[in-house]
Structure formats: C-alpha cells, structure tokens
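S.,

Sequence below, as promised.
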Amino acid sequence: MRIRRMTVVMPARLRHTAAHEARRIAQAAAEQLIDGAPRKMQVDIEGRGQSGHGLAASVARGVARNAKGRL
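The prediction came back faster than expected:
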C-alpha cells in the first residue's frame, strides 16, 4: 500500500519538531491501514496538550477505526 498524500496539521507548540512528529504520525497511521482501506479518509484529533507520541497514537487509533469501519 502506498500513501500518496497526507496532510498533518500540527499544534503551534510543536513547530520546532513538526517535521519529526509529522513523520511519526504518518508512520503510525500507515501501520494501521490495510489493503482495501478507503481511498480517502479524514481523521480529526483534539491535541489537548498531547506530546507528538501521544498524537501519533491518537491518529493511529482514528485511522484504524475508520479503516475497519469501511471495509
């Protein structure tokens, strides 16, 4: 499976590490996708002061929930 485009909007407090954290979030999301997942998906996560690692885990859960619900 290949992800062509992913838009990650990061909280302003993570601006100095945004590239690193966005990569971590994208990898966590990709690990949850399976063959046959929907072509387009939107996952909105409330930051609520979470670290980059916490945001990655939240996004991964959201992706897993959306991917499994649409198969």
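The mean pLDDT is 79.

Coffee later?
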